[in-house]
Amino acid sequence: MVEIILKQDIHKLGDKDDIVKVKNGYALNYLIPKGYAVLATPSAKKVLAENIKQAEYRQAKIKGKALETAELLKNITIKIETLAGKDGKIFGSVTNLQVHNFLKENGFDVDKRRISVPRDIRSIGSYTVTITLHKEVKVEVPLEIIAK
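^ thats the sequence. predicted structure below, dont judge the formating
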């Protein structure tokens, strides 16, 4: 048995940066030549520990920025003007792109793929949009659809 450090997730073996024990042949003939793993030498373990430490620091910094942005987003209401008929039904529907554009105009740079708009907004009214700023930070922002 030999200890290796995984460079990527391997099904039924482990996740990236895990140190696992496997049979010599599996490691030397498959995992290491394919670039899926490296031998877990003392120096490689030190490098791994430092990389994990730096990654945690970066993630903490990113999460901190996400929390700051979430606090600012809680204080706004997204207002989108659209054409609507007499009965309050809008022409087309409101999408995350329209919400993204509103946020961008107001100084928030949020990826449009991280904005979750309720399905089938087809009438004037108030709704709630969920914005995922970080895997642990989600914020719900009120959305008002107004007729032009």
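The chain has a mean pLDDT of 91.
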